[in-house]
Amino acid sequence: MENVLRPLAVIGGSLVLTLLAGWLLDLLLRRADGRHPETSLWGQLRRCRVPFQLVLCTALLRSSYPQAKLLEKQHTQVGQVLTLVLIGATAWLLVRISGALVDAWFTRYSAGALDPARVRRVRTQVTLIQRVVSAAVAVVAAAAMLLTFPTMRTVGASVLASAGLIGIVAGIAAQSTLGNLFAGLQIAFGDTVRIGDTVVVDDEWGKVEEITLTFLVVRTWDERRITMPVSYFTGKPFENWSRGGAEMTGTVFLHLDHRAPMDLMRGRLQEILRACPAWDGRNASLLVTDTTPSTIQVRAVVTAKDSDDLWTVRCEVREKLIAWLCAEHPYALPRVATAPAALPPAPRAPGGGVPSTGPAGPFSAGS
Fold it and tell me: What does the pLDDT look like over 164-195, one tens digit per residue?
């Protein structure tokens, strides 16, 4: 009977204590979250409940398992497994705690910041720092797991002796990966590109959606995702429409007839822009920038607070100007001449007649 009750008491007691501690921790965090609504830290820490319970349960079982006298022949193997689980759960808990601290701080910072560009910059830096911390914790946890095996400690000397050669080989093999890693850190602290920036890369327009240590994701206007190595943004030129301010100036080109009423078109342009919410009111102009034998090129310059609004203004100006010309001034639209060209008058002969072009002449009876 004791052989049955002892394992049940050890394992059951560990589980009960774990569930009770998890419930008590969640209760305290919920109360703290209700008393301090100005910060989301306590609400973020509630996500640590599961890894906390796993750490606590594994620690209790690791310390009390010998008293259970269960699987005594495999005592060493069971203890090894529990140790590995404890190390992994502790790393998971540390990553969750660091993530909660960073997210709570950034949420509070962004709520009081007035400069959206600075908020995006801090968000990029915080995201990359959090990924570096997670990677460091994972590496340390993996190293700690390996050191729990006696054979790994035995061959430690030989591993250290060959570490220099292995490091050189690994550095050559992972040259591209390491380059992207350092490029990611350069982007984070060099303020080259930030999450939320509008960029143009390889003739593709989009917004930066995600930045990691090795790659960057750009979401295009048609909802495609372009994944690029971060080293691209440190080694090649690209357009960043959000750097130094999001305000932009755009153009609308129209090809019209030479008789187009320019003064009336300038007045109509102002009416269209005043009725367009996306126009920021900074600038608007209409000029003839080029001419051909059959048309003139008219350029309208408009402004907006960002690229999205600029696209809206340009489309609305182009559409409404063309509709207004079709309805009010159709003669201003370009035309393609299909009528026969008028011939110049024929020169007269010295005696007043029409000169002959041949034996019969151009107006002979035979013609």
Answer: 544 544 454 445 555 656 666 666 666 678 88
Q: Helix (H, G, I), strand (E, B), or coil: what is residue 319?
A: helix
For residues 257 and 335, the answer to whether their CB atoms sit within 8 Å is: yes
What would the CATH number be for the domain defined by 248-332? 3.30.70.100
Are 133 and 95 in contact by the 8 Å Cβ rule? The answer is yes
Q: Does domain 180-240 have CATH number 2.20.25.90?
A: no
Residue ranges of domains in the chain: 2-112, 180-240, 248-332
| C-alpha span between 186 and 234 (Å, rounded) | 8
The pTM for the full model equals: 0.47
3-state class (DSSP) for residue 205? strand
Rounded to 5°, angle at Cα 323 from 319 and 328: 150
8-28: pLDDT as tens digits: 676 777 788 888 888 888 888
Please give the backbone phi and psi of residue 303, each rounded to the nearest 5 degrees, phi first: -130, 160
What's the rounded Cα separation, in Å, for the pair 246 and 141? 43
CA distances from residue 183 to 48, 177, 229, 252 in whole angstroms, order as listed: 32, 10, 9, 38
Q: What distance in Å separates the CA atoms of residue 284 and residue 296, rounded to the nearest whole number?
A: 19
